[in-house]
Amino acid sequence: MNSIRLNQLRFYAHHGVFDEETQIGGWFEVDVEVFFQSRVNRIQSLNDTVDYVAIYHLIKSSMNQPHQLLETLAEAIMDSIFQSDDRIYKIDVNINKLNPPVLNFCGKLGVCISRSRKLS
């Protein structure tokens, strides 16, 4: 099993249901693990693996498009990653809202979503 991980990516974005979230924005932390099938026994070049820089840009692009729910944001991230490479068969996405609009709340809130697809 092969995977690449992008952890603790931080973005300032405008996701949320409440007006202050969409207008003022807030900080989000994203973790993504992408599982892929390698076509070689030993990975020795970028062509043998999934390019984490390309995956980062897909995540960044999705983060720049406001969503009301973190779940739909996670789905958008996964859809774009699945479309980027036909070797990818599973993606785990964790998104945390670092400053949720909850009175007297300490911590972070988030979602974890995992999706798989069959390879042809």
User: The CATH topology is what?
Assistant: GTP Cyclohydrolase I, domain 2
| CATH superfamily grouping | GTP cyclohydrolase I, C-terminal domain/NADPH-dependent 7-cyano-7-deazaguanine reductase, N-terminal domain
Structural class: alpha+beta
The CATH class assignment is Alpha Beta
Rounded mean pLDDT score: 94
What portion of residues belong to β-strands?
A: 25-35%
Residue share in helix: 25-40%
Describe this structure in words.
- The protein has about 120 residues and is of the alpha+beta class.
- It has one domain: GTP Cyclohydrolase I, domain 2.
- The protein has 3 helices and 4 strands.
- It has a 4-stranded antiparallel beta sheet with strand order 1-2-3-4.
- The radius of gyration is 16 Å and the shape is elongated.
- The chain starts with a strand and ends with a strand.
- The mean pLDDT is about 95.
In short:
By secondary structure, this protein is an alpha+beta fold. It has one domain: GTP cyclohydrolase I, C-terminal domain/NADPH-dependent 7-cyano-7-deazaguanine reductase, N-terminal domain (GTP Cyclohydrolase I, domain 2).
Which labels suit this protein?
120 residues; alpha+beta; GTP Cyclohydrolase I, domain 2; four-stranded antiparallel sheet; 3 helices; 28% helix
Fold topology:
Layout: E1 2-13, H1 19-24, E2 26-36, H2 52-63, H3 70-84, E3 88-97, E4 109-116
Antiparallel strand pairs: 1-2, 2-3, 3-4
Helix pairs in contact: 2-3
